[in-house]
Amino acid sequence: MELVLKKQNKALVERVKKALPAIDKHTRFFDRQNSQTTIQMMTLTMLGGSSPLRMLRQVTAEVEKRKSALYEAQHTVAKKQEEIDVLEEKENLTSAERAELIKLKYDLSQINNKANGSLKDIATLADAYENIMKTNGMKDWSEEEFENEEKAHHVRRGFEMLYRNLVEYSRAKEATLEYLQQYGVHAQMAITEVSGYITHASNLIKEKRILDATHLENFLDEMKDKYVNNADKISNRLFGRDGIINKAYMEKMDKRNKDEAARKSNGKGGVNDS
Do 121 and 68 share a domain, yes or no? Predict the structure, then answer.
């Protein structure tokens, strides 16, 4: 830490200078907003539940955010480096210019730390992406597969919300019942199913059984499989057909995305390696 302040307590300045290297070393561990654990256990599962395709979509969204941050950092670093070069070429800097140079160098180091944090996040997300694919036996996935999975996701999510309503409030919320009905699940059937599960789980707990979250997840999977076809029935009633997905739109977008990917693979990467 370099200071050009004139009237500060020298003992305090020396104390800070001595302490900061160790603190700065560990500050670099937190050069990003979330830990690897938080990203994988919370960010990727928030609202996505246990839907692999939803989690993969979330990975792509999170990677795009970090890529944007990297491009912004790259631009800012280039601008600040130019300012540093100009000041370093000057002789006999004024106090203000010297202070400005110190600040620019500090800003540059902070930006590089944040960029490193974005790279760590992208690496973590890449690991998560590959692990999700491997765990679910997937080699590739398409927009059509994602859309086809959406009905199952929303039915499962509706039962999950209903479970939380009944545990927390002992009653179903109107929004949850409406959500389930939108995907063809009869409200009273859903309440009966979830109430039965809560009673069953309570009895197991009374018997000193130690339940973990997979017990609930398995029940939600059962509800998804049991009621997913209800979404087609309500779709048929509303739109006159089971599926409302237009594959033609996806095929056009898929071709454009493949062409774009091929173009990028033949060109240079956007973010500097240096």
Answer: yes
